[in-house]
Structure formats: structure tokens, C-alpha cells
Amino acid sequence: MKLLKILSVLAMPMLMAQQSTRFVYQVTLTPDSTNTEKKTEQAYLDTDGKKSFFYAENTLKRDSLMERMRATKNFDRTQMQNLRSNMQFTIEKDLTNQSLVYKSRIGRDQYSYNESPAFDWKILPETVKIGDYQTQKAETKFGGRTWYAWFTQQVPLQDGPYKFSGLPGLIVKVQDAKGDYSFDLMQTKKIAEVQQPQTRGQFINIPKNKYADMEKKFQKDPVSFFNAQGGGGRGPAGGGGGPSFDPKQQQERQKQMEAEIKSRNNPIELK
């Protein structure tokens, strides 16, 4: 196992020497534990072999749309709504030391935390061909869930979707035992350079446990959380530089946002 890891690290610069690579995953998830309806969207894992960024495809599309809106000063909230994602985070990995930075927004502020996940992978004898790749199964426990991954040594990159990494090859598929979350590699393509979603303003770096506590408080009572952040009467609907709403519209939008936030009660990491 250790020898395979060493070989894969040595092979990475050769694999990614000329161009960066984008691995496109289909993500199937159940964000609401009270609703069995599954959501599906795509996410990108962009890497140059030394670092990688994992983020929702719609994040990149929203960034592009916002740039056009700012240039034309024409803010169309309908278009923005169509590009909403259930993965409102970015994960930047340092593949050399297997550490990462998780970035997201809670309320109106942007936060980040550093983590070096210790994946205790158990490699299983089961093998299966997925698409063009011969893969092998592995198992681990992470974030309060049991996860099964299928990795391929045909792509000697110790990386995968979300925070997953550390196997002797690219993770082609990973899903939890309950079937709430699944990441499936759909496409691989070369890109000119690693893409990083746009950010405006500073991120507040805090410990992971503090971030988790804040996220729980926000999910439980969004309005109080916004007010505690100094948002006055804007609530979940405020900010963003778009058009203003009359009080009735503001109240309705606030209710919609509260309901949406509270429906995100089945996170990837349960603890």
C-alpha cells in the first residue's frame, strides 16, 4: 500500500506535466432527509497534479453570469436562480501533503477552515470496470458515514471528488452506504489551467468544529443568525447589489429562503 502511494506521487508530475485536467463528476444527493427526492448536478475537479479545486459546475456558470451582469448592469435574478447549487462550497487540496482548505458562506459572511482528513482506507478485493477504467473497491468511514470508493491506477493521482483522496489512483466513484450521496466520474478533459471559483471579499478562517457549530445555528434559525451578523432588517434576502424589494416582496423572499435553508438537513458530513 505504501509502495503504491509512493509510485503514484512520483507519477503525478509526468501525468500532469503539459496541461491541467478537469474531471467532471455527476453528483447525486439527497439534501433533505424528509424528502427522498434526489437532486443531480455536475461538479468539477480541476488539478495540475500538485493542487486541485473541487466545486459545483453551476458555481462557475454563476461567476460567468455575474461578470456579464456587472458589465451590462442588468441583474436578472431568474437566471441566477436557475444556476443554484446544492454544493455551495469550494475545496482546495494540496496533494503533496494531503491537506485541504474548505471554503463556503454562512449567512452573508465567507468562512474557511483547514483540514488534513485521515482516511483509513480498507482496500477490498472486488474489481469492476467503470467506463474505460478498471477499478478496485475500497471502504472508509468519514463524517459519520460509511463510504465505498472505486479507484483506478490507470490515473495515478491520489485525489477524488469532495474531500476524498489518499488511494493509489484516482477515485472514479464514491458513494455512502445509505445512498444519500454519490459522485460518479462522467468525463475527463484537458484545460489550459486550473480554475478557481471567483471570490469577493475576505474569508474568515476558523477551526472546523467552530464552523460546524455556526452552520447548525444558521440552519436552525437563519433570521437570528443574519441579525447577529449585523444585517439589520435585511435578513436572508439582503445584499448582493441587485434590485431592492418592497417590504411585502422582502418578507416573501425571506420565507422562501428560510424554508430552503432548513431543508438542507442531511449534510454530507453528519458529524
Q: Briefly, what is this?
A:
Keywords: Signal. The chain has 6 helices and 12 strands.
Q: Can you describe this structure?
A:
With 271 residues, the protein is α+β, with helices and mostly antiparallel strands. The protein is 27% helix and 34% strand. The chain is built from 6 helices and 12 strands. Strands 7-8-9-10-11-1-2-3-4-5-6-12 form a 12-stranded mixed β-sheet. Helix 4 crosses helix 5. It is globular and about 60 Å long. This is GLPGLI family protein. Keywords: Signal. It holds the Pfam family Porph_ging. It comes from Epilithonimonas pallida.
- Determine the structural class based on helices, strands and strand pairing: alpha+beta
Strand order of the largest sheet: 7-8-9-10-11-1-2-3-4-5-6-12
Number of helices: 6
**Helices and strands, in N-to-C order?**
HEEEHHEEEEEEEEEHHH
Query: What number is the mean pLDDT?
Result: 83
General form: globular
Summarize the amount of helix as a percent range: 25-40%
Overall radius of gyration: 20 Å
Spans with pLDDT under 50 lasting ≥5 residues? 1-17, 232-243
Cα end-to-end separation: 28 Å
**Largest sheet descriptor:** 12 strands, mixed
Number of strand segments: 12
Strand content: 25-35%
Outline the fold blueprint:
Layout: H1 2-15, E1 20-29, E2 39-47, E3 51-56, H2 57-72, H3 77-81, E4 89-94, E5 99-106, E6 109-115, E7 122-130, E8 133-142, E9 145-152, E10 170-176, E11 181-191, E12 204-205, H4 208-220, H5 222-228, H6 247-263
Parallel strand pairs: 6-12
Antiparallel strand pairs: 1-2, 1-11, 2-3, 3-4, 4-5, 5-6, 7-8, 8-9, 9-10, 10-11
